[in-house]
Design goal:
The chain is of the alpha/beta class. The protein has a single domain, classed as Rossmann fold. It contains nine helices and seven strands. The chain has a seven-stranded parallel sheet, sandwiched between helices. α1 packs across α7, α3 packs parallel to α4 and α4 packs parallel to α5. It starts with a strand and ends with a helix. Bound molecules: NADP nicotinamide-adenine-dinucleotide phosphate.
């Protein structure tokens, strides 16, 4: 009988930090195969060719129930255990809630919250003992952000959900880590609707995907439920716990965040 394969499942693997995670996990001795998920199939196939490990492409929209079913079936029909699940598929639209509009706001929630939660639910029964889940939250999770309101709220959801799930899955020895980066220069900003707008204040804290991914994998290995890369992200988290949020939002407005 064929032995059970240890796999990594990565959503959002066609660009940005998801792609970086795929490259870093390519040298992980505990992983036999990497499953790459995103809509742009050609990108995933290119990446699959570059990786040294066997890579499986499961292209599609993670919000689509048909794609979700496909993932479930692939897990059921292949003899696999998930060593690492990374939920990186996500996007954020900038502007006021009214400017962004009903459909885009709902889509952000569907993608950043609903699909991430569904993917976790599909994968948990297949997780290896000692396995790990990394969910991409953001430093935006710590504070309400006018003109980025829905995005920041979705990332608060990811943070809260991941930390609670971490507790729930402790008895199964599965670690869940919420990864909370500062802005990173990825394709993310091409989809915000305001690509020119990484404000100068945010540029100060700009992080490199490589470092964020390395730190996040290290934190999850140490069974931590949160990963913050930079000092400025840690500072924002502390400030968000001390100062009243209306005051912080007033400052955000003044400095043009
Ligand atoms: N960049 C930042 O400043 C920053 C900061 C904090 C947190 N984050 C979070 O980090 C995560 C990754 O973002 P990134 O910076 O790496 O941005 P990115 O380069 O734009 O990557 C986003 C990834 O998500 C995939 N994706 C988007 N919509 C999808 C859908 N409906 N179905 C399947 N896949 C979908 C994209 O692939 P396809 O287009 O091929 O589907 C892409 O692979 C996101 O959750 C984001 O919120 C980003």
């Amino acid at each position: 009988m064929e032995s059970q394969k240890s796999i990594a499942v990565i959503t959002g693997a066609s660009s940005g930090i998801g792609l970086e995670f795929a490259e870093q996990l390519d040298s992980h001795p505990g992983i036999d195969e990497i499953w790459l998920c995103a809509r742009r199939k050609d990108r995933l196939e290119n990446l699959a060719r570059k990786l040294r490990k066997v890579a499986k492409v499961i292209a599609g929209d993670v919000t689509d129930p048909l794609w979700q079913n496909k993932l479930r079936q692939e897990l059921k029909t292949n003899n696999v255990k998930i060593h690492t699940l990374i939920n990186s598929a996500g996007m954020g639209k900038k502007g006021t809630v009214e400017e962004i509009g009903c459909e885009n706001n709902a889509y952000m929630i569907d993608l950043n919250c609903r699909a991430l939660t569904v993917v976790c639910s599909i994968c948990i029964p297949f997780m290896a003992v000692g396995g790990r889940i990394l969910n991409l939250s953001s430093v935006a999770a710590f504070l309400p952000q006018p003109k980025f309101a829905v995005y920041a709220a979705t990332k608060s959801y990811v943070l809260s959900y991941s930390r609670a799930l971490h507790r729930e899955l402790k008895s199964k020895q599965i670690t869940v880590t919420a990864v909370c980066p500062n802005p990173m220069e990825t394709e993310f900003f091409q989809h915000t609707g305001k690509p020119q707008e990484i404000s100068s204040i945010k540029r100060i804290g700009l992080e490199q995907v490589e470092k964020v991914a390395t730190k996040a994998l290290r934190r999850s290995e140490r069974k931590k439920d949160i990963s913050l890369q930079s000092l400025s992200a840690k500072f924002v988290r502390i400030v968000s716990r001390i100062l009243p949020h209306p005051f912080i939002m007033w400052i955000e407005e003044k400095i043009g965040l």
